[in-house]
């Protein structure tokens, strides 16, 4: 049986790499399995070698897939990916001809080791891929999305829409100020004109610096990565153009008293799905979008410790890899989970971005915002402040909130039982809900 993560198996005293060809690549690789001797008896060394082989195999599969594409960008990406898999940077043919002798010989030696797909490998190692055509600013998003194809593959239609929209907006705003030039003709003068246009809007329309900076960041990243990938000579025109905002990036958590006495009791008129999500967020600290996009089977209510599993699904990609976690369902969270899984239809499951607008509008109309700056997301900050007030260890905080833990991980981490002892103390309870006596005792002693 091959190791699932490293695809290694042991035959006698020796380790081997063995991976089944995924269905998506079976049309370009007729083998049932990819097999290769790792030539070592040491498991740690075998894992390291297998990971490197797997990286190369995946790059080769991706390259072969893209080679069949009629899109010159996809074909060029195939050559770039394959060159990287072989340990070299992709360079156009004229640049390869001018490389130091040692690197040129190394590329030739690598090509000599390869027995199949020599044309594709030659293009990768010696820069034979067809150059791409002129790319204008209006096409930035289409080209950028091709480069991020692997990263975006796990996103739902709603997540893709949310990912695309701010970039579309940035390009549309740019074209209100500047002509639709090829990316290598965009200069810092154009970027400064765009910056000045935003400054005037901020002054006359009362807009925020952050809106301008988001546009500049999105445009700069797309421009930079596309130029880098296509080997387009260009000095980053967006360098140094961000606006300086004197306002601090403040967070506005609700006070616990406000949540318990005003906000939660005031949700009776909210639609059932939104109300259920708010009840869960308040007593778990989870991101609202995480809860909105979770299938029913991720809410485990028939367990000794009812809990929610926040993990990626076929239609939902998490914000970061650290977001995957389990959180006990206590207080209003348990009630909210029961409500959510009882619903026959869920409108925020595919369009979670409309959730915040709906909830924030309701809070404003019903006097449930502690200040004008408080929003649905403020509940997450309330929960985080609660963890801090209880002096919860950093690792436990990150395991509950889905943040990155900045130190090496040892052991299996906090169990559900460990988490429950903390979450119990921070959960909110609606009138009529039974609050365990142990929680009251712990709060009083604290």
Brief descriptors of the model:
446 residues, mainly alpha, hpI Integrase, Chain A, 6 strands, disordered C terminus
Describe the structure.
There is one protein chain. By secondary structure, this protein is mostly helical. The chain folds into three domains: 8-126, no CATH class; 137-229; 256-445, hpI Integrase, Chain A. Helix content is 51%, strand content 6%. A three-stranded antiparallel sheet has the order 1-2-3, with helices on one face. Strand 4 and strand 5 form a beta hairpin. Residues 440-446 have low confidence and may be disordered.
Topology:
Layout: E1 8-11, E2 14-20, E3 33-37, H1 43-67, H2 72-85, H3 93-97, H4 101-113, H5 118-126, H6 140-147, H7 149-152, H8 157-177, H9 188-205, H10 209-229, H11 256-263, H12 272-284, H13 288-292, E4 299-300, E5 307-310, E6 325-328, H14 332-342, H15 353-365, H16 378-389, H17 394-401, H18 416-426, H19 437-445
Antiparallel strand pairs: 1-2, 2-3, 4-5, 5-6
Helix pairs in contact: 1-2, 2-5, 4-5, 6-10, 8-10, 12-14, 12-16
Number of strands: 6
- Contiguous low-pLDDT stretches (5 residues minimum) are 440-446
Side by side, the strands of the main sheet go 1-2-3
Helix content estimate = 40-55%
How would you name the CATH homologous superfamily of the largest domain? Intergrase catalytic core
Give the DSSP E fraction (strand runs of 2 or more residues): 5-15%
Can you identify the CATH class of the largest domain? Mainly Alpha
Instruction: For the record, give the distance between the C-alpha atoms at the N and C termini, rounded to a whole number.
Output: 52 Å
**Shape from CA axes?**
globular
Mean of residue pLDDT?
83
Q: Which class of secondary structure composition applies to the elements?
A: mainly alpha
Largest sheet: 3 strands, antiparallel
Structural Rg: 27 Å
CATH fold-level name of the largest domain: hpI Integrase, Chain A
Please, how many domains? 3
Q: Identify the CATH architecture of the largest domain.
A: Orthogonal Bundle
């Amino acid at each position: 049986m091959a190791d699932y993560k490293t695809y290694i198996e042991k035959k006698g005293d020796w380790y081997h790499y063995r991976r089944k060809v995924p269905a998506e690549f079976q049309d370009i690789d007729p083998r049932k399995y990819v097999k290769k001797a790792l030539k070592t008896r040491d498991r740690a060394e075998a894992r390291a070698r297998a990971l490197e082989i797997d990286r190369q195999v995946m790059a080769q599969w991706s390259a072969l897939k893209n080679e069949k594409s009629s899109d010159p960008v996809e074909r060029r990406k195939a050559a770039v990916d394959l060159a990287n898999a072989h340990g070299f940077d992709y360079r156009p043919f004229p640049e390869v001809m001018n490389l130091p002798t040692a690197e040129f010989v190394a590329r030739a030696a690598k090509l000599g080791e390869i027995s199949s797909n020599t044309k594709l490998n030659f293009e990768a190692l010696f820069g034979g891929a067809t150059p791409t055509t002129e790319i204008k600013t209006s096409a930035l998003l289409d080209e950028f999305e091709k480069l991020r194809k692997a990263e975006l593959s796990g996103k739902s239609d709603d997540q893709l829409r949310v990912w695309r929209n701010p970039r579309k907006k940035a390009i549309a705003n740019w074209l209100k100020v500047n002509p639709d030039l090829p990316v290598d003709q965009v200069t810092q003068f154009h970027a400064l004109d765009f910056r000045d246009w935003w400054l005037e809007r901020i002054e006359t329309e009362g807009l925020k610096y952050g809106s301008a900076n988001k546009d500049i960041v999105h445009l700069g990243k797309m421009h930079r990565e596309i130029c880098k990938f296509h080997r387009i000579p260009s000095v980053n025109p967006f360098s140094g153009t961000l606006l300086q905002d004197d306002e601090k990036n403040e967070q506005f958590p609700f006070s616990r008293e406000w949540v318990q006495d005003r906000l939660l009791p005031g949700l009776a008129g909210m639609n059932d799905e939104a109300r259920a999500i708010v009840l869960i967020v308040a007593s778990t600290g989870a991101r609202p979008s995480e809860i909105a996009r979770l299938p029913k089977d991720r809410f485990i209510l028939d367990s000794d410790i009812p809990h929610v599993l926040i993990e990626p699904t076929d239609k939902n990609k998490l914000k970061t890899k650290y977001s995957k976690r389990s959180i006990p369902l206590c207080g209003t969270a348990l009630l909210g989970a029961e409500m959510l899984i009882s619903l026959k239809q869920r409108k925020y499951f595919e369009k979670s971005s409309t959730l915040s607008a709906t909830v924030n509008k309701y809070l404003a109309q019903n006097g449930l915002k502690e200040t004008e700056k408080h929003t649905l997301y403020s509940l997450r900050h309330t929960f985080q402040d609660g963890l801090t007030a209880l002096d919860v260890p950093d690792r436990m905080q990150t395991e509950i909130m889905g943040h990155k833990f900045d130190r090496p991980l040892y052991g299996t981490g906090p169990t559900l039982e460990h988490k429950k002892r903390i979450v119990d103390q921070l959960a909110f309870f609606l009138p009529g809900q039974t609050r365990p006596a142990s929680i009251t005792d712990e709060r009083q002693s604290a």
